[in-house]
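Thread amino acids onto this structure.
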């Protein structure tokens, strides 16, 4: 999928996820608690954890992951250069498909960051 309007994509995904949350509230609550615990600052700060999540989203080829983690990384102060380095590590670990999704991740960052 090549998303061109990342804001619209996030809005649409939020709506779809809302339906899933309504249909399985206990699972959604558990997932939310897991996400909160996993991204809480510890030995790694929250920005670093979001950059890791973005790298995993690239290698897993998950559009929603790109959108949410690129936006979160931007909100936590990640620079465009940091995103590009994340893409580089992702390509190293995931090959050609990660190169394609790395380009998508950069587009997500550019479309959802503070300037997007």
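Threaded sequence (116 positions):
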């Amino acid at each position: 999928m090549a998303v061109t309007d990342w804001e619209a994509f996030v809005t649409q995904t939020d709506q779809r996820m809302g339906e899933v949350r309504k249909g399985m509230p206990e699972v959604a609550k558990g997932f939310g608690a897991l996400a909160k615990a996993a991204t809480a600052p510890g030995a790694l700060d929250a920005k670093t954890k979001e950059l890791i999540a973005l790298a995993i989203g690239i290698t897993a080829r998950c559009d929603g992951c790109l959108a949410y983690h690129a936006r979160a990384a931007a909100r936590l102060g990640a620079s465009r250069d940091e995103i590009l380095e994340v893409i580089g590590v992702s390509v190293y670990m995931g090959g050609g498909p990660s190169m394609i999704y790395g380009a998508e991740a950069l587009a997500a960052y550019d479309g959802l960051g503070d300037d997007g």
